[in-house]
Specification:
Elements (H helix, E strand, L loop, with lengths): L9 E5 L2 H15 L7 E5 L2 H6 L3 H13 L1 E4 L7 H6 L9 H9 L2 E6 L16 E5 L4 E10 L3 E8 L5 E9 L3 E7 L2 H18 L2 E6 L7 H24 L3 E5 H10 L4 E5 L1 H15 L5 E6 L5 E5 L5 H8 L9 H17 L3 H19 L2 E2 L1 H4 L8 E2 L2 H15 L1
Parallel strand pairs: 1-2, 1-3, 3-14, 5-12, 10-11, 10-12, 15-16
Antiparallel strand pairs: 4-5, 4-13, 6-9, 7-8, 13-14
Helix pairs in contact: 1-14, 3-5, 6-7, 11-12, 12-14
Bound molecules: NADP nicotinamide-adenine-dinucleotide phosphate and magnesium ion (MG).
The site of magnesium ion (MG) has 2 residues, from helix 9.
Length: 402
């Protein structure tokens, strides 16, 4: 069989520890035998980030802007322990943070639904994708502990030195105060990323805030989404047969629990932090989640939602067998290959990505899985495979499908 050809390279961001081991196995077993894989390779492994003073991370993000599609392996975000372990020159910043700052986007996370790994919420039949705004609000807040009686105000001073004031509270005794902000530009790009992703995946978009209580702050989010929807997306949504639905956050939570899934839920920063952990744990596991960063100008970076699985890596180094779940990393590759195929009009590449997804799901549904899934499956007799054997089992299924 001829290998599938690619025209534009994918930006390949290699990473650390156990996921770096899985990365190579996936390429060797599931990609290289079938695709004439074209990538521009960036080694984001911590050693190489340290050697290049983290320039490699910046270069990989710039390459993503040039080519449009990247696939990223999980990477170590250094802490004090890593400083000595890797003899680092500096405590380099989180690569995801650096890449997000350059690409300016929204992170979409969706569970990978498999029979035998059932959501705790019985009526959820389809995945629920969380789109989390990743700028501002309490994550960029300033806070004061009020020691005793006194007045607290918000003061805005414009460039001419004119002040606008708003009373927060006349304190009679001790208390606390918090100031937070967001930027209209950031909210606009969040809105566009969500609308584009809904069109891309042909799913309805839900958005919710607390605009009845927060009549200026949250209401601005609601208004910006509505204005951009009316001006740029209304017709496209009608053509695609999908809807944009705004409601209050408490109403949204109640509806989500009663729904059967199959939509994108756009969340403000804090809501997204809290709700994505609720949704992902209710669906099973972080290793069964897809994660993609979408920038407002249409660049895509696919990754796994979990970390480098350090504990398994140390076992691996000691020659012990590991049973690490590679599903999220496989889906990061297929997501990127499918997007590359769409952009370059390579239907064969898109079809291959679909079949590899199908082979991965089918392998698990036939009862062959890694230990993390065997512990939660409703399948009474799962076969627990090690890291390498799971990937080989997926290859066997894939060859049968092809
Ligand atoms: P982690 O790698 O997500 O793993 C935490 C635990 O979750 C593992 O010990 C394992 O549990 C389970 N787990 C996670 N992924 C799994 C998989 N694919 N298959 C099976 N089990 C899985 O988090 P961490 O150990 O706290 O962090 C390790 C490193 O990852 C850190 O240096 C951190 O900076 C980095 N990190 C990177 C990213 C990213 O690049 N996107 C995200 C988060 C963390 P058991 O040990 O019980 O089997
Ligand atoms: Mg969190």
């Amino acid at each position: 069989m001829d290998k599938i050809k690619m025209t534009t390279p994918l930006v390949e961001m290699d990473g650390d520890e156990m996921t770096r081991i899985l990365w190579k196995m996936i390429k060797d077993e599931l990609l290289n035998p079938f695709i004439d894989l074209k990538t521009e390779y960036y080694d984001l492994g911590l050693e190489h980030r340290n050697e290049t003073d983290d320039q490699v991370t910046v270069d990989s993000a710039e390459a993503t802007k040039k080519y449009g599609v990247a696939v990223k392996c999980a990477t170590i975000t250094p802490n004090a322990a890593r400083m000595t372990e890797y003899n680092l020159k500096e405590m380099w910043k989180s690569p995801n943070g650096t890449i997000r700052a350059i690409l300016d986007g929204t992170v979409f996370r969706a569970p990978i639904v498999v029979k035998g790994i059932e959501p705790c919420v019985r009526n959820w039949k389809k995945p629920i994708t969380i789109a989390r705004h990743a700028y501002g609000d309490v994550y960029k807040g300033s806070e004061i502990k009020i020691p005793g009686a006194g007045t607290c105000e918000i003061v805005y001073t414009n460039e001419k030195g004119e002040e606008t004031r708003e009373l927060i509270h006349n304190f009679a005794g001790a208390g606390i105060v918090q100031g937070m902000h967001n930027l209209c530009g950031s909210i606009e790009s969040f809105a566009r990323s969500c609308f584009n992703y809904a069109l891309d995946t042909k799913q309805d978009l839900w958005f919710a805030t607390k605009d009845t209580i927060s009549k200026k702050y949250d209401h601005t989010f609601k208004d910006i989404f509505q204005e951009i929807f009316e001006a740029e997306y209304k017709e496209k949504f009608e053509q695609a047969g999908i809807t944009y639905f705004y409601t209050l956050i408490d109403d949204a939570v109640a509806r989500v629990m009663k729904s059967e899934g199959g939509y994108i839920w756009a969340c403000k920063n804090y809501d997204g932090d809290v709700m994505s952990d609720m949704v992902s744990s209710a669906f099973g596991s972080l290793a069964m989640m897809t994660s993609v960063l979408v920038s407002p100008d249409g660049n895509y970076e696919y990754e796994a939602a979990h970390g480098t699985v350090q504990r398994h890596y140390y076992k691996h180094l000691e020659g012990e067998e590991t049973s690490t779940n590679s599903v999220a990393t496989i889906f990061a590759w297929t997501g990127a290959l499918r997007k590359r195929g769409e952009l370059d009009q390579l239907p064969e590449l898109c079809a291959f990505a679909d079949k590899l997804d199908q082979a991965t799901v089918q392998t698990i549904e036939e009862g062959k899985m890694t230990k993390d899934l065997a512990q939660i499956t409703t399948n009474p007799n799962p076969v627990v495979l090690n890291s390498a054997d799971f990937i080989k089992a997926v290859r066997t299924t894939l060859e049968a499908i092809l």
